[in-house]
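Reopening this one. Same input as before:
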Amino acid sequence: MILVLTCDGDEHAERVVGTLAAADVTVFDPARFPADATLQIGHPGDGSTVRALVQDGRRLVLDELTAIWYRRPGNPVAHPRTVAGDHVEEECRVLAESLWDGLGCLKVPASRPVIDRAGRKPYQLEVARRLGFDLPATLITNDPDCFLDFYDRHEGRVITKPVHGNQPEAGGERFGRFAAPVTPADLGHADALRLCPVIVQAYVPKRVEVRVTVVGGELFAAEIHSQVSNHTRYDWRHYDPGATPVLPHDLPGDVAGRCLELVERLGLTYGAIDLILTPDGRHVFLEINPNGQFLWIEDATGLPISTAIGELLKNGVRR
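Same output, byte for byte:
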């Protein structure tokens, strides 16, 4: 019995659920709780625990789950007529997250606290360093002087990216914050770093960028020809589907082994790893997303990632 936690309209979840036709699968968005669903954690006093979800008149005993996919769940939403809605939503969030965290079944990509830790760029960079990945020269700081020294040392060929979130909000408007080169004009605002830290990295020349999707013990690598388009030259997430070829990539055995070990060391069963293949043939680690998107890779290359996730949910990790 499998539970998929995700928001409505998640095409990635729909594709994977479509591979699980013979399995008992329930899809649930915690945003339906508490208005349209109930959750329960019971300790009867006999040493046992009873956890349950009821939605659409169906009661699901969560202790009978064999796997849970913590895909992209929404946060609980209070009923519009609820007094003190913020308080209610926080109470519901703590209950729901405590419930998911306490389940003993297989978790994909991991339990929520493990996902949160694995998603921290400074932490994953350190784990990758210990595994022997080739890393860009990197500085993470809010010290303007250190930043300027780094900029000079690398002759201005540096990029910056956020320490964690890439969709900041200002003045009620949300905008994307991608990896971007530092320009001479930016140096005039260097003192603003005191207010917020940033990741600064030496620019790494690219032959192609590589997305490695690890599913359990399986690995799917694709090369993104980001240098053919100015939109994607510094960050392929400015994806230009009409001008950016994406093809299967033959990953060297030692790099593939590090990718598998990185996912395992981070406590994950799934991870989307971003690498750069340099003109001289080095695979340089950038970051890993514990819940990265995969359909665009699958559709462009034919790599059977959805099927692999379905097999993982049904059968567990296979090496």
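So the earlier flakiness isn't reproducible anymore. For the record, The chain is about 25% helix and 25% strand.
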